[in-house]
Design goal:
Elements (H helix, E strand, L loop, with lengths): L23 H8 L1 H14 L34 H7 L1 H12 L7 H6 L4 E2 L2 E2 L8 H18 L3 E6 L4 H4 L16 E6 L3 H13 L6 E4 L4 E4 L5 E2 L1
Helix pairs in contact: 1-2
Length: about 230
């Protein structure tokens, strides 16, 4: 997984800008040296990638439930007041950042709900500000997948996780990409098997480079810079 890959020469790749490239020092302090090797490969794979025309992307046909996507709601709220106090002004700023991405199928509420969770007395938190643009990259991938399948996003089950919160998530790895704000667990209004198949098809045809994990009720998608399946 640490082997570097050359960028895919496709105009359809969704790519981060230079500010979204991974900060080595921040990763060392958050995840440790073992995970840093993985991120170094991701940096090499991502170097030189550029954005593209939204209309020039791979198309995949999947069996749908008859649903169609619609513009996401602009309403944000309903979070536990203790969590809101912990986040303070950071919450408003992060909502504004997510809205600035102008996603077609994902609302700021969808993203924030994935963070406003508590396990074993530990609240999850919004990501550190220097990590924000990484999630923008991954969310654009999810947004494209929803558009191409013509199926709404049902739930962002998990996005960024603090190391302490991550340790309380059943089955989560200590070097989880969620801690770097590069991964989402997402469910759509169709079977997770359909989503996983469509995501891998789009990825393998040039939409992005990253990991796709298949689970019974959701699909894991990350943008680590090299293709991995499980």
């Amino acid at each position: 997984m640490s082997q570097s890959h050359s960028p895919v020469p496709s105009p359809s790749i969704i790519t981060p800008d230079s500010s979204a490239l991974i900060n080595r020092r921040g990763i060392i302090s958050t995840l440790g040296l073992a995970t840093t090797a993985l991120f170094a490969g991701s940096m090499n794979a991502s170097a030189g990638w550029f954005g593209s025309d939204d209309n020039d992307i791979p198309v995949v046909k999947v069996k749908t439930t008859g649903s169609t996507t619609s513009k996401p709601s602009q309403q944000v709220g309903g979070f536990d007041q203790e969590w809101v106090r912990l986040e303070g002004r950071n919450l408003t700023n992060y909502v504004n950042y997510i809205r600035s991405l102008k996603l077609k199928n994902i609302s700021a509420q969808d993203v924030i709900l994935a963070h406003a969770k508590e396990r074993g007395g530990v609240w999850n938190r919004l990501p550190p500000r220097q990590y924000w643009t990484r999630m923008g990259y991954t969310l654009r991938v999810v947004d494209r997948i929803s558009s191409e399948m013509k199926i709404p996003v049902k739930e962002i089950v998990s996005a960024y996780r603090t190391p302490t919160y991550n340790a309380r998530c059943r089955g989560a790895k200590s070097n989880s990409w969620h801690q770097a704000n590069l991964a989402v667990d997402v469910s759509f209004d169709t079977s997770a098997r359909n989503v996983t198949k469509a995501t891998r098809s789009l990825r393998d045809r040039g939409l992005f480079k990253g990991g796709v994990g298949s689970y019974s009720s959701f699909t894991h998608i990350d943008t680590r810079g090299e293709n991995v399946n499980w």
